[in-house]
Amino acid sequence: MAQGTFATAINCMDGRVQDPVTEWMRSQYAVDYVDMITEAGPTKYMLEADGEALEALQAKVRISAHNHGSEVIAIVAHHDCAGNPVSKEEQYIQVRDVVEMIQAWDMNLKVIGLFVNENWTVETITEV
Predict the structure, then answer these.
(1) pLDDT one-digit tens code per residue, 40-55
(2) Tell me, what's the pLDDT at 88?
(3) How far apart are CA 128 and CA 125, in angstroms?
(4) Which Pfam families does this UniProt record tie to the protein (predicted)?
(5) Which of 17, 36, 54, 89 is least enclosed, having the fewest CB within 10 Å?
């Protein structure tokens, strides 16, 4: 088991959203570190991914949960996403769909959906 406390985020590769998400999760969940799993437009990626790609992503989440002791995972969408250039409303729908997907993995994690807005602050979409 790693030293310190961890949370997990499936986040966009866009560097503008890394710090706001890390800071928010550290503050909200009193963790030392956030394991960041990144993809361009992660909600779109996950909703369109084939089984092999999702299995690879699940393996990364499993490492965070089992080896680092993470108890919470966030799926993150954001304003001005080049990898998923759809409306904020559509991104909210996608985040909710991916939260359900992650819950179905049955990894005993709290799953949250986040959106980083045009001011680069974090909004909570859903928590389960």
Answers:
(1) 999 999 999 999 999 9
(2) 97
(3) 10
(4) Pro_CA_2 (PF20393)
(5) 89
For residue 92, how many other CB atoms are within 10 A of its CB?
17
8 forms beta bridges with 35, 73
Torsion, Cα of 24, 27, 30, 31 (10° steps): 40
CA-CA distances (angstroms) from residue 95 to 13, 59, 74, 92?
A: 16, 20, 10, 5
Q: DSSP string of the chain? A: --SS-EEEEEEES-GGGHHHHHHHHHHHHT-SEEEEEEESSHHHHHHH--HHHHHHHHHHHHIIIIIH---EEEEEEETT-SSS---HHHHHHHHHHHHHHHHHT----EEEEEEE-TTS-EEEEEE-
